[in-house]
């Protein structure tokens, strides 16, 4: 029945999370730097500056929770001005199961990132922020980790709760 199908699905998702977790980068190895606040600010970093930050979220219709609006908003890291936005109204294909949010939301967010690459590549973000947990997750691999690994971008998870 449905219960055993769900258990099989969860086992598959756990295997996928474990495989992706092996690709997780926890050290700072990006090609950009943040502006220094130290007094020796005339020392220039060989790396470029962080220019664009992409923020992701998905909002669900109260009347129909399987319909959602997914958004990415790109900010200029210096001015915090919005420089680009992409939205998609989507039908959710995967139910919400605690601990497995990434399998519901990551494909949609990655689709938005692809859309952004096509429509405004010059605003492509170097850093992502997403409404969801990263390492603070039952298996140490939440939506932020999942998205970051698949997008190959540093990603910060901003979770409302654990799980």
TrEMBL record:
Q: Does the keyword Lipid metabolism apply?
A: no
Where is coiled-coil annotated?
none
Q: Which UniProt keywords apply?
A: Cytoplasm, Endonuclease, Hydrolase, Nuclease
In terms of InterPro entries, this protein maps to: Endonuclease-V
Q: Which GO terms describe its molecular function?
A: RNA endonuclease activity producing 5'-phosphomonoesters, hydrolytic mechanism; single-stranded RNA binding
Task: Give GO cellular component annotations, separated by semicolons.
Answer: cytoplasm; nucleolus
Q: What's a Pfam family this protein contains?
A: Endonuclease_5
Enumerate the Gene Ontology biological process terms.
Answer: DNA repair
The record's subcellular location field reads: Cytoplasm
Main subcellular location? cytoplasm
Q: Superkingdom of this entry's organism? A: Eukaryota
Database matches in PANTHER family: ENDONUCLEASE V (PTHR28511:SF1)
Name of this chain's protein: Endonuclease V
| Source organism of this protein record | Aegilops tauschii subsp. strangulata (Goatgrass)
């Amino acid at each position: 029945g449905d219960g055993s199908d769900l258990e099989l699905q969860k086992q598959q998702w756990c295997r996928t999370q474990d495989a992706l977790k092996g690709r997780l980068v926890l050290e700072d190895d990006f090609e950009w730097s943040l502006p220094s606040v130290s007094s020796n600010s005339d020392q220039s970093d060989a790396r470029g500056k962080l220019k664009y930050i992409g923020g992701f979220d998905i909002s669900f219709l109260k009347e129909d929770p399987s319909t959602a609006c997914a958004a990415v908003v790109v900010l200029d890291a210096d001015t915090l001005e919005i420089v680009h936005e992409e939205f998609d109204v989507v039908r959710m294909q995967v139910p919400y199961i605690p601990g497995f949010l990434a399998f519901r939301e990551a494909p949609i967010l990655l689709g938005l990132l692809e859309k952004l690459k096509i429509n405004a590549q010059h605003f492509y973000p170097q850093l992502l922020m997403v409404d969801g947990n990263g390492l603070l997750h039952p298996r140490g691999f939440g939506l932020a980790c999942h998205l970051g690994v698949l997008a190959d971008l540093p990603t910060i998870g901003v979770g409302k709760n654990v799980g």
